Amino acid sequence: MLLTLGLNHNTAPIEIREKLAFSPERLDDSLQSLTGLPFVEEAAILSTCNRTEIYCDIATQQTDELIAWLAAHHLVNETNIREYLYSHAEHQSIKHMSRVACGLDSMVLGEPQILGQMKTAYQQAYDAGTLGKYLGRLFQHTFQVAKKVRTDTAIGFSPVSIAFSGVKLAQQIFADLSQQTALLIGAGETIELSAQHLKEQGIGQLIVANRTLEKAHAIASQGNGYAIEIKDIPAHLAQADIIISSTASQLPILGKGSVETAILKRKHKPIFMMDLAVPHDIEKEVGTLSDVYLYSVDDLKNIVDDGLQSRREAAEQAEDIIDIQVSHFQAWMRAQNASQTIQQLRKQSDQTREELLQKALKSLSNNQTAEQVLERFANDLTNKILHAPSSALKQAASEGNSSLLLAAKQLFNLKK
Prior knowledge:
Blueprint: E1 2-8, H1 14-19, H2 27-35, E2 40-47, E3 51-58, H3 63-73, H4 78-81, E4 86-89, H5 91-101, H6 113-128, H7 133-152, H8 162-173, E5 181-185, H9 189-200, E6 205-210, H10 213-220, E7 225-229, H11 233-236, E8 242-245, H12 256-265, E9 271-275, E10 292-296, H13 297-365, H14 370-398, H15 402-411
Parallel strand pairs: 5-6, 5-8, 6-7, 8-9, 9-10
Antiparallel strand pairs: 1-3, 1-4, 2-3
């Protein structure tokens, strides 16, 4: 039985999520401990800042025992974590994993990072030797579903964060960001995310300006960049093709005069500017200058809202795809059950044949004619193989179980 047990940003505060997070260094030991439970046959663990989930193939649905293990493993009181946990079995577990991989269960709808995190969870479990036939196949199926959703819907196309929106907008103005230099002003989360997105899109160079040089250097070092102090911005302004500013300053950092000077030095090469600060970091008058494209946080908010609506519509399409793919995986699982039954039937038949064959060979060695031996062998084999189903059919008839009789006719292809 497939089972998911977990908690996420919707069900638990960060204090609880931190207590139940699995450290990467100890994950192998955790997986070995988990599969050491007598009812756990396969297991994988996904642990991120926003969620912790245990995926299992278990002999019986022993959710309480799994919760007890989770609490004991993290040295927390079981009673204190129960209200934050959710569990899904079989069909719902398969669907939940697909929804997570597609970003439909993420804090940011449709975000792609979770798929990479799930692939890491799969690889860690594979390396630990805790994956088997069913859970291993489910992970591969889940990755295929996520790829199909990304290909067939617009779930990841529309920007849904201010930082991401800004970078997407910059790409519309500068087709090749690898030839551009970006000046980031500030060192908060928005600037850090902007630096990350610019790096992912291949920005040529980063300059990060901040009052604290150490923080600016930490962000600039993520890419091909360097750090400067805010007071040194005028000396570097003409280098910047893209400027993104987000500080807590109460007064503007960039004025019309300094930008005019930079434009002249650039020989009127355009500058794309995003003022993501409240209050503004860039004087509004800068937007009146030729060759300057200035956007405020309100301008980008409209793009974000449009992006979220687009992703919600794509998410509805994704849910339909997931439902179809879940039914496909369940069909595969049912086929595996049939395969096991067929293997058992064939093994039992082979054993019967071997026993009767040895008996026939012994009869031949006692000088009985081949014709007599073959006739007895054929009769014995037929009677032995048909004994159990014949008894079951007689019992079904006596109990009025017509469905089994009809199934037998279909199974053995009996003509009317």
